[in-house]
Amino acid sequence: MLTASQIQELVKGGEGYNVDFKRSVPSKVKEISEEVAGFANAAGGYVLIGVDNDDRIIGAEIDNNKRSAIQDTIGEISPALKCEFYSVDVEGKKVWVIDVPSGKDKPYISGGVVYVREGANCQKLRSAEEIRAFFAECAKIFYDAIPCRWFDIDKDIEPGNFQSFMEMSNLSDALPIKRLFEGLELLTEEGVAKNATALFFGREPERKFPHAVIRCLRFKGLDKVHIIDDKTFGGPLYQQYLDALSWIESKLEVEYIIKGTGPRKEIWEIPLDVFKESIMNAICHRDLYEEGGTIMVEVYDDRVEISNPGGLLPVVAAEFGHKSMSRNPLIFGLFTRMQVVEKVGSGIPRMRRLMKEAGLPEPKFDTQGFFTVTFIKRIKTDLANADRLNDRLNDRLNSREKRVLQILSETPGLRTNELSILIEVSIPTLSRTLKGLIDLGLIEYRGAKKNGGYFVISD
């Protein structure tokens, strides 16, 4: 049974993989059974009635007739599912809780339809073929939900990564870690951490999951013959994401364009935002049961390819680019809470749109065995023939250093953790960049260690 403080923490974190908000009992009570079935077919969760769309606790009154209607609609779920339904007083306002377990007899059906929780939404599986294919491939248990008995939440958490998660998820540091992880469905009923806990928060999880890394390669030319650079990034998943993005950025060329008196414009060989989508997709959708494969980022002279083990799930293949179903829903839910993942199913359309807006070919997708997306680079002569004035910065600075200087010029006094979030690189990587800029005499740190920040040296 949730306490008032636990409900407040869930509300602060917003809707996600394991929590759904209702302002009041919907006019179509059946909507509640759909949400409940979706949670039961995933990792379980909570429906909170009396919380509005702005994540505010407003309270709700539910009379006996409505309570009976809610219990009746949940009772229509097949097979039978036992849920707790109770109210909790939160600062004088009544919040109703439907506590849904992860079902042991999946799939659960509501109104002839199977619903599965994905991020902050429920996806419909309508046909028998979709249902059989999805649950057969996932074997009714997700890799990230498997108990990870070696992981100790008191000893094995990487503190910097955990702090980033708490800040980006707007969660309070006052909440005990065990209670937080219970609310996020990251512990089993016996209190054992799940694989998602170790992969997302653990210190060097690649020691136990050697395949759960991102390998980045830069090739000379158009094929795999000559390797120029080869880096493998481990650590917590969010750090892997930041490191891979930073590495890709360092391998791409950028033009700085000035027109008239307007601000300088960056023109990259490939828009950087497509890599935020593609790397995140690869992490959330890779098949971790395939221990012989890992996420690959391959940069060639004419293109960038990003691939992950596991082709499309059959339920997704039929509506590719419109429907999403993660193989790692707990991990996906954590990224959703950090607001790193946008609307479910929006990644593919967004990549296509970004490439089109940049005047580049749409990304190419290969979904057999591995899921691979290919981005074609901009032809350099396109910029030369566009009658633009090219304003390159000092060749001694790499693209990340230029971004730090630009951000600090616009917002002086930022601290390391604030810059890390804005530039989307890990704190250790950013610290090396900041040291290099200090050594060049371009920036300096001013103020006390706890509340000071970095400033560009004006002269």
Write a structural description:
The protein has 459 residues and is of the alpha+beta class. It contains 16 helices and 18 strands. The termini are far apart.
Summary keywords:
459 residues, alpha+beta, six-stranded mixed β-sheet, four-stranded mixed β-sheet, 20% strand, globular
Short précis:
The chain is of the alpha+beta class.
Helix content: 25-40%
Q: Give the neighbour order of strands across the main sheet.
A: 9-8-12-13-15-14
User: What is the end-to-end distance?
Assistant: 61 Å
pLDDT < 50 stretches: 381-394
Shape: globular
From the alpha carbons, calculate the radius of gyration and give it in angstroms.
24 Å
Indicate the proportion of strand residues: 15-25%
**pLDDT averaged over residues:** 85
Structural class: alpha+beta
What's the tally of helices? 16
Q: Could you give the count of β-strands?
A: 18
Chain oligomer state: single chain
Q: Report the biggest beta sheet as strand number plus sense, adding barrel if it closes.
A: 6 strands, mixed
